[in-house]
Amino acid sequence: MTHPVEDRVRSLADELGIPGVAVGVFHEGEERYAFHGVTSVENPLPVDAATLFQFGSTGKTYTSVALLRLVEAGKVDLDAAVRRYIPELTLKDPAVAESVTVLQLLNHTAGWDGDFFEDTGDGDDALARYVERMATLQQITPPGAMVAYNNAAVALAGRIIEKVTGSTYERAIQELLLDPVGLGMTFFFPNDVMTRRFVVGHRIEADGAVRVLRPWAMPRSGNPMGGMAASAPDQLRWARFHLDHGSTPEGTQVLAAELVDQMQQPTAESPGCAFADAIGISWFLNDVAGERVVSHGGSTLGQFAGFAMVPARRFAIVSLTNAEPTGPLFNRLIKRWAFETYLGIEETDAVHEPRTAESLADYVGTYGTFSIVMTVTIDGDHLVVQAKPTPELIAQLGSDVDHDEPPEPLGMLPGPGDRWVVVSGPSAGSKGFFTRDGDGHVTGIHSHGRFVPRTGP
């Protein structure tokens, strides 16, 4: 007899056309897994417990724990300026380079344009060279002023680890985390992954065709922001480490319980943000039906990971998928199903309200950063946003990111704050908001966790 999670995973993956998925649930002290589909449509192998998926930005929590191990050792202070550890740090705004703190790197409040993925080579100096390139990044908001997802800031945090330990980032993570926590199926380098069973990313085209996306690997400079691959059991072991306050199932205390718990306490508020109402130390924090949910998903090219915990109930679910654009939807729906099935927690969608074209006119315009251009228009009683990657981002990540995403319909939410929700499509339920200046003019859009300034009418 199959377990209910296996049935639900199979039916949902088939419904969404995803080639391969792996899901793990930790509940009442037991682990449950469901594996379905294949690693690749070009070289199909069954997904199993040893199959490696890229888990993307969930890796930011590894960077944070490594830094906290250095905090515990008295070698790093979260409130210290980054320049204490990287004296040569140069940013576009000299005042920011002087003042930005370690914590601001970890809670996405550093304020510069963060989606920067320049390939600085495969050598041990990749992170050092990447940090040198950060001098070109536009400062969008002052440090500490706003939560805005920032990959580059976490890469900088990885460089702190290198400077303090005198090691490469990858070797430091191996010694500080992977070995002591017992994560024997978590890897950085393609040469380690390619000798094992692993999935590749896919894209489901509008005509239903499924194709493999390339390149497979992120640049080495991206490892602190999310360059690892792991099996579902290793991901669930990482969840148990946090649920058990820094202890392994075998009883080894790797990090002080108070520091693990500190990660799950708010350090910055972000009401209306797509990811969370508050940010801890890397973790996204939301209250759902009176329960604190601690989460951090991730994505790479065609691979999407979901990771959510309910610490008070000692519950976790991890989900790993290998297709866009429906992978994130799978992760969201399987988490919702698991919360309801195992915990009796029902997540509800925000309910938008229709608006007149006149009331929506303020938001119409173009918005942009180094990595993305967004165009907001009106369609009847709601807004529509069309996002396009910039040529600069395409050059960094490869031509497979250059495709037309479906427009996202935005329904405005009642109440203050210019808040909205995506009302349909793969990102349905994702939240965001517009910002205004002191004179009431719309100055930007907060979408998918990023702040994108207004650039024109």
Describe this structure in words.
With 457 residues, this protein is of the alpha+beta class. 28% of the residues lie in helices and 24% in strands. It contains 14 helices and 22 strands. The chain has helices at 4-16, 60-72, 94-99, 102-106, 126-133, 151-165, 169-181, 190-193, 223-226, 232-243, 257-263, 327-343, 357-360, 391-397; strands at residues 20-27, 30-37, 53-54, 186-187, 202-204, 210-212, 229-230, 268-269, 278-279, 284-288, 291-295, 298-300, 303-310, 315-321, 365-368, 372-379, 382-389, 408-412, 419-422, 431-436, 442-447, 450-456. Strands 1, 2, 8, 9, 10, 11, 12, 13 and 14 form a 9-stranded antiparallel sheet that branches. Strands 15-16-17-18-19-20-21-22 form an 8-stranded antiparallel barrel. A 3-stranded antiparallel sheet has the order 3-7-4. A hairpin with a 5-residue loop joins strand 5 (202-204) and strand 6 (210-212). Helix 2 (60-72) packs parallel to helix 6 (151-165) and helix 2 (60-72) crosses helix 7. The model has no long low-confidence stretch (mean pLDDT 96).
| C-alpha termini separation | 59 Å
Give the structural class.
alpha+beta
**Count of DSSP strands:** 22
What summary fits the major beta sheet? Answer: 9 strands, antiparallel
- Alpha-carbon Rg, integer: 21 Å
- The parts where pLDDT drops under 50 for at least 5 residues are none
Shape estimate: globular
Strand content: 15-25%
Helical proportion? 25-40%
Distinct helical segment count? 14
- The average pLDDT score comes to 96
